[in-house]
Design a protein that fits this description.
The chain is mainly alpha-helical. The protein is built from 2 helices and no strands.
């Protein structure tokens, strides 16, 4: 069983954050959690939230 490719060149980006954001993230990282892991989890959670919000309600 293979792993999902995480180094896909088409899925690579850089981002700029407001001053102090990186320090705030570092302050809340769990033991052995990486900054990259935190950012990936945060993006995934926000995508899920927004996708759920855009779904049309099922008709009764």
């Amino acid at each position: 069983m293979g792993r999902t490719q995480v180094n896909d060149p088409d899925e690579k980006t850089s981002a700029r954050f407001a001053t102090g954001t990186m320090a705030r993230i570092k302050a809340v990282l769990k033991a052995k959690e990486s900054m990259n892991g935190f950012l990936k989890a945060a993006v995934e959670a926000e995508l899920t939230r927004r996708e759920r919000a855009t779904r049309k309600p099922k008709p009764d």
